[in-house]
Amino acid sequence: MREIHDVVVIGGGPGGSTVATMLARQGFSVLLLERENFPREHVGESLLPASMPVLAELGVLPAVQAAGFLPKWGATMLWGRDRTPWSWHFKETNQTYPHSYQVWRPQFDQILLENSRANGVDVREGHRVREIIFDGNKAVGVNYQDIAGQQRLANAGFVVDASGQGGLLGRQLGLRTWDSFFQNLAVYGYFAGSKQLSAPDENNIFIEAYSQGWLWNIPLHNGWASVGAVVDSVTGQEGLHKVGAKEYLLEQIAQAPAMSQMLANSEMVCGPAVVRDWSYVCQPMVGDGYILVGDAACFVDPLFSSGVHLALMSGVLAAAYVTSALKDPGIAKAAGVVYEELYLKEYRHFRELARLFYSSNRTAESYFWEARRILDADDSLSPRNAFIQTVAGQPPRGYERAVLGHGTLPPAFVGSVREVESERVRRGKWFEDELDNLHNLLPCLAVGARLERKPVLSGGEFQWGYVLTSLNRPEGTECSSLVAVLLSRVDGRTSVAELIARLQDGSDQPQKGQIEQSVLAALQILYVDGVIVDSKGAG
Ligand code: FAD
To answer: How far apart are the first and last CA of the chain?
Structure first.
């Protein structure tokens, strides 16, 4: 039997349910095929505040709150130079959402999937997709096995692969590249009777570095704690082979003094499970008639609990992409490139941050930590570029500040951090000194700065807009049409006064004043960010 839908989504995890809900709300007919029957087990309990706006947008926040999951206010770590645990709190960087949740994934994922159903998605559990069907290079549907074991075919205008680490399409098309830096594996289980940290950090995730890797302890609302060890994949596999997963996990815990104390009177009540083969990127993430979402597209080491956030975020972006591609095929190719750029920007942020953390730890000495100290072993990123990719040219905040404060970084890297920060401070000071002379400045684009017309996100779709790229922001930043017009006219010969006059042409007096204010404010940001310089050599 053949059926036809606008979109088929493979997988009902956070990525799949998000993209399906958003597309159904746009009025598309969406079929979601999930091989398991929910609630199903899944690791990954600790959420980031960045997920909260997406949960709000999906309309599931009340249900998530009602589930009673523990609010998570930050992270506590035994990591870096310090021999005692230190904490940092989300409120340092996120005033709107100063907390997230430690969720029980079977329940959390079910809330999201039921929400898809409530929004009109045709959700079918116990249905396994076997293969994505192509007509030439275009994905046109899927072959799947229904709950009764019957082989079926569903045709679709678009196929969304949200099949998680299994990565159906990535494997079918050979799109995966493995990350040589994160050659780790995890063994984890659930413990009853774990001690919690003392207030106010009792709901924090606790992370302890020890000689063979690091351990996590995530308190859960059902009284259990999710506890896991991340170790080198080769030595880990040897250990697992020798003593079995449970013994191996207990051996790892025994080597970490703080974790041992927390778990002294506990017992493992669920698990253990082992996850291998992680940290990869699929490219391209978008092709003719298909898109990859969440772990199906890429996965980075779980150190920063970024997986669910990346899945939700890419689900929202993918829904915008599919909407745009189905409505206006003319924008599809360019918007697909932007989808991949936006996803990789967020992925790289966590990857570089995790690499920094690994390379900066001095709590424990061993092969594991030695091997992870070389920042540039696997790619051509200079320390300066690594830093810029990590913090996007901004002063370090949150985790970034923590790694710089508690870790021991390679001297070249520390030098780059200082250089980037002092350049910014110098440009800011230069601009302040020029305040009386602003109208006479002759701005031009700095080396490496570029303005491009590209698809940008707007109202749940991709539409044409402007993106600015510079050496300090290689990933690009969307900019307003005023900034775009301004930048298209800076040539090192036209003064700020002339630029303002041209932009004011035809406006009435109050508008003229507003334009001048907006241009001067934009110029300040552009000078301080290093997007423009003064052609007389200053700035
Ligand atoms: P998934 O949640 O894996 O969902 C994919 C779904 O697709 C599954 O339900 C699966 O059954 C279904 N599926 C697969 N194949 C098929 C098929 N052929 N047909 C139909 N359905 C199919 N993230 C965090 O945010 N916080 C953490 O603390 C955290 N800790 C982690 C610890 C470890 C050890 C690991 C490995 C990961 C951790 N993560 C964490 C990552 C997080 O679990 C994932 O990033 C997240 O679940 C990704 O969501 P997803 O929707 O892309 O994939």
So the answer is: 68
Model confidence at 418, pLDDT cuts 50, 70, 90, reads confident
Determine which residue's CA is closest to atom 32 belonging to ligand 1.
Answer: 44
Catalogue the E-assigned strands of 211-302: 213-219, 224-232, 267-275, 280-282, 286-287, 290-292, 298-299
Position of tokens 């990123």?
A: 381
Q: For residues 529 and 74, give the distance between their C-alpha atoms in angstroms, rounded to a whole number.
A: 30
34 CB within 6 A, ligand 1: yes
- In this predicted model, what pLDDT tens digit does every residue of 271-284 receive, in sequence order? 899 998 778 999 99
Per DSSP, the residues of 392-434 read TTSPP-HHHHHHHHHS---HHHHHHHHHHHHHHHHHHHHHHHT
Token pair of 368 as six digits: 């594991």
For the beta carbon of residue 109, count every other beta carbon within 10 angstroms.
Answer: 25
What spacing in Å lies between the alpha carbon of 502 and ligand 1's midpoint?
53
C-alpha closest to that of 14 among 91, 111, 101, 82: 111
- Reported as type and span, the H/E element at residue 157 is strand 151-161
Residue-wise pLDDT tens digits, 240-252? 999 999 999 999 9
The rounded Å distance from CA 42 to ligand 1 centre is 7
Q: Report the nearest-CA residue for atom 31 of ligand 1.
A: 44
Q: Which structure tokens are listed for 48?
A: 């980031």
122 Cα–ligand 1 center, Å: 21
Beta-bridge partner residues of 72: 100
CA nearest neighbour of 290 among 455, 131, 123, 127? 131
> What is the structure's pLDDT at 476?
83
The reply to whether ligand 1 has any atom less than 6 angstroms from the CB of 163 is yes
DSSP reduced 3-state for 272? strand
| Spatial contact of 209 and 361, defined as CB atoms under 8 Å apart | yes
As to burial, measured by CB atoms within 10 angstroms (0-12 exposed, 13-18 middle, 19+ buried), residue 75 is: buried
Neighbours of 377 (CB within 10 A): 12
Largest CA distance in the chain: 81
Burial of 515 (0-12, 13-18, 19+ CB in 10 A): middle
Q: Is 353 in the pocket of ligand 1 (CB under 6 A)?
A: no
Q: How confident is the model at residue 357 (pLDDT cuts 50, 70, 90)?
A: confident
Strands 205-210 vs 74-78: parallel, antiparallel or unpaired: parallel
- Pairing between β-strand 477-479 and β-strand 122-125 as defined by DSSP bridges: unpaired
State which ligand 1 atom lies nearest to the alpha carbon of 306. Answer: 25
Residue 259 CA, ligand 1 centroid: distance in Å: 26
What integer pLDDT is reported at residue 405 of this predicted model?
Answer: 77
Exposed e or buried b per residue across 177-213, where buried means at least 16 C-beta atoms within 10 angstroms of its C-beta: eebebbbbbbbbbbbeebbebeeebebbbbbbbbebb
